[in-house]
C-alpha cells in the first residue's frame, strides 16, 4: 500500500478503530519530555508516527566550531533541545531522535513582536537577538502536540504535525509590529560551510516555497518546503549573511532585501510582517519534500487541506493511539505506563517516512525515484537499531519493517559502492560506526518470514555488501580472518561485528536453501575466535603478523581497538554463539562469575571520563547500558546454570536506567534502540541474536500485556504474582503447557496464544 | 512536435532532404573561427544547431578577481577562447556565443600523458599544470567539428556534438601513463565562490555521472552530466580543493581520493588513467541534462547509441547543412559566402535547446517541468536579439521562434515576479540590460501571425510584465511618463526602450482586437517625447521634478543616463515612430544632416576608451555598430528624402564590420544579433521596428538569394547589375510589379514570390 491520501484520512479511520476497540487513552502516558535532559537526546516537539516532519523547539544553536576549534557543546544539541536551557531559539522542522551524532534542524521559525531582529542572540543575552525566554511551567509536550509560552513576546506557540506537514499556531498580543522569522541558516551540527545553498520564493501573499541544501553529517542533503500562512503577509524581507555574490543584474534594478519575491544564496534569514489584534492566531502550515517545492505543496494540500488546528492535533493523536495500542499492558504504576508508552513512542519515530504522498523520493544517487509498492524510509541508525528495534518492528510493525528492508534495498541499488546502508539519512550515507548491520535486519526479516520483498535479491545484496574489500578493513578480514590493529583503530570490535553479521547472512542463506553461502558465511562467523587471547581471556587487538598487541587496557575505551566500549564489555560480543564463547572463556561457572564482575565491580574514576554518550548513571559497575554493545549481555546468564541472574539483572537495569522524568534516559535513545530494549525486557523476553527466531526469557516487569498483531491475532503475556521484589520466574507456561526452555520463538508469538509467567521473590535453579 | 528521437535520426532525414535538393555544400563556408579574436566573443568548437552542448576549447581560465580585485581580463574570455593565446586549457561543454557578459564553461576535459597534474597551469608556464601548447596550423574549426593537436602531449583532439551530447575523440601516443582530466572547478566567469556544489559518481569502469551547481551570472544553476568512456578506466581519483568538510564517516573507512566511486564537495578535479598503444583512440561521450544524471544518460543513449565518431560528425554537419540551406545565395565571392553562412551559423546557435529528449527541463522556479507540445529553449539575450534575430527567426525559423515564445511564456508562468524573461539562461533570470523586450518578440510573432501559442495569454503576459512597478524605475515611468535620472543610472535609455516596448504591446493588442489596451499602450509609447530636450535636440536625463540635468555630455557613454550608447546614438531610438522623431528633431532635411554627422564626425579620442564591448574598428564616426542601440539607425534615412544614403551606409557598414577572419567581428556577436543584422542587410531589407510587419529596404550586397520558407514556399531575391560600387537601388519590382514604397511586408515574403533589385552606381531620388 502506498500512503497516498495523507495521514488525515488514515488517522480518522484509526480513531474509529480505536473507539470500536474500547481501548484506554494511551496517548496520555506518552511523555516526550523524557530524555530531553542531558544524554537522552530526544526532543519534546510534535511528530506523527514515523513522520517526515519533527517540529520541535531548539533551545540553542551551537556552532560546530568557534574560531576553528571544535565546540564540545555541539554534542549536547543533537536533538536541538536541552531541558536545562532557559531560552527557545525557535521551532525547526527536522530532528533526529536520540542520536549521538547530529544534523538537521531545518527551517527554524519563531514568532516575535517589536523590532525585527535577524540573529538568534545568545542564551545569556537573548534580547540581543530573536530568541525568547520560556518556562517549563508554561510548556506542554504530548505525542503529536507541543505548546509553550514565549515569555518575551507574550506569544503562545502551539505545534502539531502530520507525516509531512508541520502545523504552527501562534496566539499574538495586539501589535502593529508582529513578525514571523524564518531562519534559513539555523541548523543542528552547524558550521561555517554547512549552508551550501538556500532558495526562497514568495509565491503570493500567503505562500512561500524554497529549499535548503546543506553539507553537514549528510554530505549532499536538500530539503524542499512549502509554507502557507493563514493571514496575508503585509510585507517581507531578508538579510543576506553571505560574504558576497557574483554580479547579477539585480543590482540597481531591485532592492532584494525587501519585498523581492525570489532570494537565493548561501546564508540568509527572512521575516514576514503582520499586524495583529489581541489574541489573534496566525497559523502556518509548513510542508516538506525530499524532491521539490511542487511536491511539498502537493503534500501540504493532501495532508492538511484546511486550517483546523484542533482537528489536525486530534488526528495525529489518534494516529499515535493506534500505534500505541498495538501493545496494551496491565500495570498499577502510572510511571511504568509512562515509561512503557513513551518507549513505544520513541520506538515509532525513526526511521522516518522519506517520500512524498505520490511516492517520489530522492535516492542516494541524487535522482528522483518512485517507491513502487512500499513506503520509502530513511534515518537508519543501524549499528544501534539492528539489535532490538528492527526485531521489535518484525514483531509489532512487520509491514513497516518489510518496507524498511525495501528502502534499504533501493539504497543498495542506487549506491555507487553497491552496499546496503551503514548509517544513512536523507539520500546520504554517513558511514557512521562499524559493521554492515543492514544484513542483520534483512536476515532477521527473512528468517522470520516477514518478506514482502524479494528475499533472493536481499541475500544477494548482503553478500555483495560483505564483499566490498575496500570497506573499513574488510579485505584484511576476508584474507586473515580478522581486522589487524595496525590497519584500523577499531579492529577488534569491527572483527566481532563482521563475524556476527556473517552469521546473519548464513542464517538467511540457510532459510533460502543456499548451502554454499551458508557454509561460507558460517565459517566467517567464527572469526571472533581470531581476536580472542586465551592467555588473558579477553578479545584483544592483533597485528597483521598475528601477534597480539602488548599495550592493552581491558577497561579503557580509548584507542584499545573497540568502538563505544571496552574489551571487558566487547568480549561478550558473540551474540550468535554464546555457548562457544562460554567454552572459550572457561566454562559456564567461570563465565557466570565473569558476568557478575561486570555488573558489580567498581570502575576506577578515570574510566568514567572516557565513556562516550552516557551519564554516570548509565553505568552499572562496568556494564554500560547507554552504549549498545552491552544490550544482550544481561541475557547471557541464560546460557550458564544461573538464568535467574538474567532475571535479576534486567529488572535492576530497567529500574536504574529508565525513569519518567526529563533525565529519565541514562544514554542516547539512539533512534529507539534503548526504548526497544526497554519494551522487550519489560514484556519478559529479548532477541539476543537477531537473525535467529528466538527470544530469550528475562523477567516481565508488568502485570501483563496483550500484543495485537498485524495478522489479526493476539499474544497475551500473563504475569502471575507480580511484585517489585518478585523478579524471579518460577515457571512458564506457553498456551497452558510448561515451557521447558529459556526462549520462545517468533512463530509461537505470531501464531497467537498466551505465555504465563509465575513470579517469585526466590530464584529457582 | 517534441524532439524525442534525438538529433541523430532528424539529421539523417535532413541529409536525405539535402541530397534530394541538390544544394551545394554550404557547411564549407562556415568559419567558426570568425569572431574569436578580440571582441567577437564567439567560440570555435563543436555544436549542433541550437544545441544544448557547445563543446569548445578554452584558452584560459581567468578568475573573476585576483586578491579581491576585479580582473578586467575576465571579459575577454566570455566564450573561453581568444585567438591570440598559445595554450589550450581544455575542452568544456557549455559556452555562450558572442555575449558581453559570461558564465558557463562547465566540465572541462583534457587528455594528457605523463605525470598527473590537477591544476590548469598558466599561459606563461603551461607545464606547471595540465594545459597544452597548440598552433593554429594544427587546428580545424568547422560547423559541428573541431580538431586540434595538443603539442605538449602529441595528442590529436577531435570534437563533435549532437544537441545534448559532446563527443570527444583523442588519439594518444603509446603511454603507460595516459589520463583524461575532468576539471570540475574550471569555468568561465569563475570566482572563489562560484562553485556551490559538485557531485560525481563512478558508476562502473566506463560510466561516470554527476552534476555541478554554480553561483555565477546565473545565480542558481545546475547542470547534470553522464560521461561514457570507450575504454575501461584502469584507475581513477580526485583532489579536493575545498578548504574543509564536515565530519562524515568516510574518514578512516575509505581513502576518498583514489578509486572511491562517490565524491561530492565544493571544488575538486578528477582524473582517469589508461594505458594506450601508439595511435590508440579514446573516445568520450559527454551528455548534459538540466534535470538529472538519469536524464543525461537517457539523452546520451538516445542521441549517440554507438561509438562511430565519423558518423556523428557527418550527421551534425548534415543538420547544419539543412539549417544553412534555408537561404541559398548567389555570390562570386568566397569571403562573402563565408561571411554569410558563418552569420547563419552564428544566428542558429542561441537560444539553445534546454530540455531532455523526453521534454523535461528545469524551470526558473527550480522545479522540473515537461515541455508540452514545444521545444523549450534558454539563453535569451533579449536586449540584443529582439532587434533582428527574433524577426529573422520569425521569417526563416518560425516554428522555433514560436517555441521560443512558448519557452518565454513558461518562464513567465514560473517566475516569482510574474515577468517575462529579461536576460535568462539555464533556469535563471540574470536581469541583464534594460527594458522588457520579451514583449517585442511576442508582439512581432503575434503581428506576423506566427502564433502556435495562445496569443491572448501572451498579450496578458506582456501587460503583466509591463506593470511590475518595482522593476527598474517602471513605477516612476508609469506615473511620470519617464524614468527620472535621480532614480536610476540609465534613466533615458530605459525610458526610450520602455516606450518602444509599449508600442509593441499596443500592436499586439491591435492585432488581437483589444482597443482599450491598444489605446493605453499607444499613449505610453509616446513617452520618448518626455526625455527629449528640444533646446538641444537630444534625449536628455530628467529629474523627478521635471528639470533636465545640467551636466550632460552628448558624446559620452559614462553616466549620462544611457546604457551602451551615448545621447547622440540613443536619441535616434524611436524605431516605432521615426516620422514623429524627425519632426521633433527639426524635419527631414535637418535630420538627414544629423544622421550624416553621426557617420562622418571625428569622435575625440577620449570617447573611444569608454565605449563598451567593441574594438576601435567597431566605430564609424560616432556610429557604434558593435553596440545594438544603433542597429536601426542607418535605415532611418528612408524616412527622409535621402533613402539612397541608407543604401550607401549599410553597404559601407557591411564592408567595414564583417570580414572572414578571426578578428572579423568588430564587436560582440551577442548571441547572433550582429549576424542577423548582417543577414538581413545583405539580403536588402531590415526590420526597423519589430512588432511591425515591415522590412525597410537597404541595398542587397549579393548577386541574389532564395529563401526556402518553412511553409514550403520560396521567396527569391533577384539582384540585377550588382557590382561593388553599385550600392544604389534604382528600381525595385515585387513579383514583377514596381514597388512604390521603401518597405516590403512579412506576408509578401511568406506568400512566396520574387523581389527584383536593379542596382546602380548613381543614386536616384
Automatic annotation (TrEMBL), chains A, B:
The keyword Ion transport does not apply. Its cofactor is Ca(2+). Residues 1-18 form the signal peptide. Keywords: Calcium, Glycosidase, Hydrolase, Signal. Residues 29-289 form the Glycosyl hydrolase family 92 N-terminal domain. It is an enzyme of class 3 (hydrolase). It comes from the Bacteria. GO terms for molecular function: hydrolase activity, acting on glycosyl bonds. The keyword Phosphoprotein does not apply. Pfam families: Glyco_hydro_92, Glyco_hydro_92N. Residues 295-760 form the Glycosyl hydrolase family domain. Its EC number is 3.2.1.-. Monomer. This is GH92 family glycosyl hydrolase. It comes from Pinibacter soli.
Amino acid at each position: 500500500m502506498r500512503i497516498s491520501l495523507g495521514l488525515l484520512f488514515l488517522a480518522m479511520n484509526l480513531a474509529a478503530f480505536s473507539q470500536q476497540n474500547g481501548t484506554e487513552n494511551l496517548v496520555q502516558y506518552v511523555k516526550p519530555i523524557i530524555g530531553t535532559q542531558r544524554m537522552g537526546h530526544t526532543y519534546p516537539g510534535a511528530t506523527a508516527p514515523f513522520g517526515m516532519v519533527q517540529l520541535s523547539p531548539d533551545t540553542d544553536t551551537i556552532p560546530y566550531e568557534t574560531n576553528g576549534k571544535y565546540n564540545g557543546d555541539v554534542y549536547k544539541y543533537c536533538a536541538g533541545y536541552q531541558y536545562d536551557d532557559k531560552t527557545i531559539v525557535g521551532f525547526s522542522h527536522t530532528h533526529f531522535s536520540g542520536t549521538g551524532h547530529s544534523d538537521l534542524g531545518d527551517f527554524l521559525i519563531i514568532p516575535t513582536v517589536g523590532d525585527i531582529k535577524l540573529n538568534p542572540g545568545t542564551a545569556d543575552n537573548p534580547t540581543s537577538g530573536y530568541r525568547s525566554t520560556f518556562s517549563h511551567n508554561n510548556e506542554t509536550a504530548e505525542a503529536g502536540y507541543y505548546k509553550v509560552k514565549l515569555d518575551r513576546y507574550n506569544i503562545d506557540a502551539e505545534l502539531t504535525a502530520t507525516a509531512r506537514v508541520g502545523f504552527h499556531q501562534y496566539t499574538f498580543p495586539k501589535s502593529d509590529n508582529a513578525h514571523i522569522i524564518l531562519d534559513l541558516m539555523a541548523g543542528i551540527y552547524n558550521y561555517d560551510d554547512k549552508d551550501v545553498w538556500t532558495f526562497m520564493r514568495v509565491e503570493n501573499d500567503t505562500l512561500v516555497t524554497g529549499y535548503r541544501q546543506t553539507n553537514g553529517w549528510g554530505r549532499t542533503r536538500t530539503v524542499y518546503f512549502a509554507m502557507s500562512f493563514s493571514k496575508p503577509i503585509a510585507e517581507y524581507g531578508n538579510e543576506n549573511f553571505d560574504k558576497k555574490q557574483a554580479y547579477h543584474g539585480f543590482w540597481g534594478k531591485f532592492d532584494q532585501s525587501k519585498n523581492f519575491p525570489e532570494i537565493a544564496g548561501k546564508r540568509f534569514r527572512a521575516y514576514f510582517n503582520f499586524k495583529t489584534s489581541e489574541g489573534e492566531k496566525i497559523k502556518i502550515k509548513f510542508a516538506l519534500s525530499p524532491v521539490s517545492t511542487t511536491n511539498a505543496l502537493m503534500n501540504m494540500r493532501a495532508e492538511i487541506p484546511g486550517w483546523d488546528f484542533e482537528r489536525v492535533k486530534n488526528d495525529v493523536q489518534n494516529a499515535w493511539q493506534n500505534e500505541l495500542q498495538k501493545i496494551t499492558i496491565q500495570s498499577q504504576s502510572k510511571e511504568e505506563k509512562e515509561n512503557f508508552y513513551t518507549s513505544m513512542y520513541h520506538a515509532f519515530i525513526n526511521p522516518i517516512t522519506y517520500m512524498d504522498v505520490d511516492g517520489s523520493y530522492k535516492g542516494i544517487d541524487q535522482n528522483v525515484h518512485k517507491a513502487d509498492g512500499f513506503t520509502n524510509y530513511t534515518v537508519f541508525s543501524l549499528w544501534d537499531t539492528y539489535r532490538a528495534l528492527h526485531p521489535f518492528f518484525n514483531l509489532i510493525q512487520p509491514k513497516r519493517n518489510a518496507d524498511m528492508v525495501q528502502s534499504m534495498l533501493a539504497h543498495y541499488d542506487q549506491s555507487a559502492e553497491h552496499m546496503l546502508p551503514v548509517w544513512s539519512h536523507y539520500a546520504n550515507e554517513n558511514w557512521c560506526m562499524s559493521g554492515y548491520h543492514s544484513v542483520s535486519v534483512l536476515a532477521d526479516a527473512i528468517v522470520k518470514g516477514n518478506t514482502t520483498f524479494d528475499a533472493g535479491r536481499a541475500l544477494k545484496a548482503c553478500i555483495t555488501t560483505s564483499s566490498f574489500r575496500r570497506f573499513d578493513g574488510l579485505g584484511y578480514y576476508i584474507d586473515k580472518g580478522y581486522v589487524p590493529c595496525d590497519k584500523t583503530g577499531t579492529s577488534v570490535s569491527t572483527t566481532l561485528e563482521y563475524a556476527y553479521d556473517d552469521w546473519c547472512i548464513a542464517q538467511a542463506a540457510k532459510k533460502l536453501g543456499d548451502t554454499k553461502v551458508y557454509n561460507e558465511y558460517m565459517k566467517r562467523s567464527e572469526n571472533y575466535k581470531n581476536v580472542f587471547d586465551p592467555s588473558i581471556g579477553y578479545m584483544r587487538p592483533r597485528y597483521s603478523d598475528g601477534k597480539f598487541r602488548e599495550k592493552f587496557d581491558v577497561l579503557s575505551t580509548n584507542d584499545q581497538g573497540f568502538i563505544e566500549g571496552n574489551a571487558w564489555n566487547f568480549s561478550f560480543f558473540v551474540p550468535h554463539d554464546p555457548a562457544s564463547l562460554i567454552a572459550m572463556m572457561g566454562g559456564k561457572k567461570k563465565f557466570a562469575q565473569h558476568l557478575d564482575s561486570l555488573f558489580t565491580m567498581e570502575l576506577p574514576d578515570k574510566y568514567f571520563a572516557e565513556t562516550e554518550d552516557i551519564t554516570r548513571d548509565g553505568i552499572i559497575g562496568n556494564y554500560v547500558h547507554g552504549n549498545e554493545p552491552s544490550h544482550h549481555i544481561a541475557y547471557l546468564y541464560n546460557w550458564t546454570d544461573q538464568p535467574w541472574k538474567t532475571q535479576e539483572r534486567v529488572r535492576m537495569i530497567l529500574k536504574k536506567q529508565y525513569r519518567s522524568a526529563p533525565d529519565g534516559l541514562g544514554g542516547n535513545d539512539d533512534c529507539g534502540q534503548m526504548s526497544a530494549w526497554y519494551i522487550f525486557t519489560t514484556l519478559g523476553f529479548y532477541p539476543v541474536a537477531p537473525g535467529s527466531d528466538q527470544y530469550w526469557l528475562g523477567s516481565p516487569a508488568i502485570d501483563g500485556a496483550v500484543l495485537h498483531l498485524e495478522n489479526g491475532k493476539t499474544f497475551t503475556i500473563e504475569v502471575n504474582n507480580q511484585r517489585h521484589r518478585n523478579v524471579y520466574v518460577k515457571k512458564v507456561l506457553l498456551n497452558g503447557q510448561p515451557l521447558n526452555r529459556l526462549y520462545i520463538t517468533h512463530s509461537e508469538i505470531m501464531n497467537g496464544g498466551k505465555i504465563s509467567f509465575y513470579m517469585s521473590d526466590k530464584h529457582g535453579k
